[in-house]
Amino acid sequence: MDKILKAAKAIALARRNRAPLAALDHPPADEAEGYQVQRALHDLLLPQVGPLVGYKIGCTSQVMQDYIGIPHPCGGSVFQKGVHESGAKLAAADYVRVGVECEIAVRLKRDLAAGEAPFTAEWVGEAVEAYHPAIEIVDDRYVKWETMGAPTLIADDFFAAGCVLGEAVPRSSVPDLKAVKGRAIVNGEEVSHGTGADVLDHPHNALAWLANHLAAEGKGLHAGQLVLTGSLVKTLWLKAGDKVRMELDGLGTVEAEFT
């Protein structure tokens, strides 16, 4: 069995068992190999997570790059069973160590095919149908994530564990995304805030990065897919009983409770 599949199987086993992952016996050598493992992992996980419905982009803000120690964006995936509506009550026990991030999510109205690359922020912005205020759910599935290294974190979908979406806001009525202020409220208390400009200077820059990243692998984005563009705030780690609310000016609010 090749090294890519071995790594994918080790990660899939840990995810199915909700067991913290220690260092892999055969970790991916670099980020390109990390994405190969990620694709192999998806094939193993599909029966339990449902079809791929979109992507998440990690490390798009300075606060997150500093926190994770990776100076550029990284991609992960969003699966059907991980997408919830605002007001969702989710069991904290379904995660190893659950955390949340405050995000602007986009829904695409048309395909962004690999052959159209290179993509610019303006170009991908035209392909957006609507935006959602979003809580990205992340899961620290590691014995110690700080020692795992970017290739392994990428292989395991870069902490992705789903999302909670607020009401869609059509592109025609969306405010200047750069100026959108996001507030993270846990148990009624504001704990953090950021703005759309914190996400690579504009969330569409993150979307363009993802489209170009996928195009380099010969893949495209598709109409109807969801993209979480990156966190406006540093990850907030939660405990059972926590109630979370994200308020994004002009985009609305989204709430979840971890029981």
TrEMBL record:
Lineage, uppermost ranks: Bacteria, Pseudomonadati, Pseudomonadota, Alphaproteobacteria, Hyphomicrobiales
Parts of the chain that traverse the membrane: none
Instruction: Give the keywords, sorted.
Output: Lyase
Q: Name one GO molecular function term.
A: 2-oxopent-4-enoate hydratase activity
Cross-referenced Pfam families: FAA_hydrolase
The catalytic activity of this protein is classed by the Enzyme Commission as 4.2.1.80
- Output the superkingdom of the source species: Bacteria
Would you tell me the protein name for this molecule? 2-keto-4-pentenoate hydratase
Q: Which SUPFAM superfamilies match?
A: FAH
Query: Which residue numbers delimit the Fumarylacetoacetase-like C-terminal domain?
Result: 97-257
InterPro entries given in the database record: Fumarylacetoacetase-like_C (IPR011234), Fumarylacetoacetase_C_sf (IPR036663), Hydratase-Decarb/MhpD_sf (IPR050772)
